[in-house]
Write a structure and sequence with these properties.
21% of the residues lie in helices and 26% in strands. The model has no long low-confidence stretch (mean pLDDT 85). A hairpin with a 7-residue loop joins β3 and β4. The protein has one domain.
């Protein structure tokens, strides 16, 4: 894992941006001890949500473990993402900080497009 990428990711901690009127993106990124669940030494939550509360529309995080989907899958994932406000979570393989950010922004764009919300992504 590239230390510079991890530092860039960590620098987003506490950042919140209004992506469009009444739509927020929020970042919580914390350094944590490296463990089996957090081998990169980072705990994160990246959220796209309505400004006035409500369930997040998209969320990438390490808040809880999720069961793998599909046949033959047995590993519990701690890195995961929620595609919609009703999605219980699906495993996400954290390989690099920049890939995590790219994947998050891709899903933000997809969601804003699906909701017909104008944006600059």
């Amino acid at each position: 894992m590239d230390d510079d990428e991890l530092e860039l990711l960590r620098s987003l901690d506490g950042a919140a941006y209004e992506m469009a009127p009444d739509v927020l993106v929020e970042f919580t990124i914390k350094r944590s001890p490296a463990t089996a669940q957090r081998p990169h030494g980072v705990s994160y939550s990246m959220v796209l949500r309505p400004k006035e509360g409500g369930s997040p529309w998209v969320r990438f995080d390490k808040a809880h473990a999720v069961a793998p989907r599909g046949r033959g899958r047995r590993r519990i994932a701690h890195d995961h993402w929620h595609r919609t406000e009703h999605d219980e979570g699906r495993p996400y393989e954290f390989t690099a900080a920049m890939k995590l950010l790219d994947d998050f922004w891709r899903e933000v764009k997809r969601t804003l497009d699906e909701k017909n919300i104008p944006h600059d992504l």
